[in-house]
Design brief:
mainly alpha
């Protein structure tokens, strides 16, 4: 069974390891996530439907 000193040493060891790793990851982690997003996620583009044109209907210039 672990006593309180063992738990405190474990917490201190994790803090010593993970706090510097977090500060160093702050610089390269956004670039890594952007690279992964570019490589594995396909961009979705919305194609325009274009302009609706009716060839059978002519403009009536008498009402302009």
């Amino acid at each position: 069974m672990m006593n309180i000193t063992d738990i405190a040493q474990l917490v201190l060891l994790c803090a010593v390891i993970f706090i510097p790793l977090g500060y160093s990851a702050h610089h390269w982690l956004p670039r890594l996530t952007a690279l992964i997003r570019l490589l594995f996620l396909k961009p979705r583009y919305v194609k325009s439907a274009g302009t609706l044109r009716r060839s059978s209907v002519k403009a009536d210039h008498r009402h302009d």
